[in-house]
Each structure stands twice: as structure tokens, then as C-alpha cells.
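Sequence in, structure out.
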Amino acid sequence: MTYLKSNDLFGRLAPETLYERVPRPIVIADHLLTPDNMGAMIRLADNIGASEVCFLGNEDEHRLGKVRRAAASSRDNIRWYFSEETDLRNIVPAGKQIVAIETADNATCIYDTPLPEDVAFIVGSESHGLSEDLLAQCDVVVYIPVPGPTRSLNVSHAAAVALFEWQRQMLTR
């Protein structure tokens, strides 16, 4: 077996044809604290082919140069923006279901939950997660089982698990 550049492999496999039959997801992140996590979310959203990333919170509170550096080339490939809106339905287009990635009372295991085709995923901040107000606005709440001794995931890692589980489910439908 020999190494193959990712552009060559994915150019041949054409995974983007998924979007010929399902809408592109949206990624929403609530009040992230670190530029590295914000940049990672932009890069992840670009990797999965999302249509946009919305960061809830005030743009002036962030060091955008560090966010752009962490996002690398993805910073110019995908629309990303800040919003102080608290009503998710004013951000998410009609018809999209909002799926929270969070540990909460009503959450179901992501691997046992059929995820919607037309979706906006939302993740909470690194230290506080999603507020009850935002959770109440979600159509579905899923958790990712973490069997190791550290029982929480980095926010961008949790989003990666969820987005690629969504992709897996869409490809097997």
C-alpha cells in the first residue's frame, strides 16, 4: 500500500456528490472562547462541505487574526460570521432541523439517533456548554458517549464526530 495525496483520493471518490441529494449542513457555535477552537470549527465546516458557520456572540471580543490563522485556507472557502441573535430560528433557514450536540437530560446517543437530512448543528462554549434557552430551541439533542476517564470532548472534536456521523448516515440512506 502506498501513500496517496488526499486531493487525489477524494477527487476520484467525489464525496461532494452527497450534496446532490441532501442540503449542506450549517454549523453554529455558542460563545466559543478560544481562537484555536473557532478556527478548527471553520476548518471542520469546510471539510464537511457545510454552507456556513455562525458564531453566537460579539465579534469584537475575539482575536480574528488568530481565528484566521487557525482556520488556515478554510477561512476563505466558507462563509463564517458572528451573530448576537438569541433566536435560532432567525439564523437557521426554515425547514432545517436544529441538532444540539450536548450532554443533557433529554439527549439521545448520536449513534442510535437518526439525524435529519436538512440540519443545523449547534455546539456550546468550552466551559458552559449550551444554555437551557438554546437547548429548548433545538429539535434534537444528542450526546457522544465518552468511555475514557476524561468525560468531555473538545468542542471542535465533538462537532467533528457529529458531522461525520451525519455524513455516514446520509451515505447509508
